[in-house]
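Hi everyone,

Forwarding the result from last night's run.
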Amino acid sequence: MANPEVDIVIRFKDEEFWLKKLKSKFKKLKKVDIFLHGVDNNSSDCSRDIFEQFDNINLKGKTYQKIIDYKPGGALNAGANKGSCKYIIFLSAHCIPKSDDYVSH
């Protein structure tokens, strides 16, 4: 069976610390092909640079967009509109998954 394809939308604002942790967790993900979408609420730190460094052996694609007028639901919708997969996972950058196979479940 082929790996599932999943859109993961990460919203963030000045989340440099948490994006580094999330990036290291993504490197351990198993059995999934990821399309990653970053929605940046006008960060003033290095959040965008860190997001651009996200790398994963199964990363199929990545988009980035900056928004100025932040509304939580609007940010999630903006990211979801970039996707095309059957499954979408929404994460705030400070939400670090505990399991390395949470996506495949």
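Residues 16-26 form the longest helix (11 residues).

Cheers,
N.
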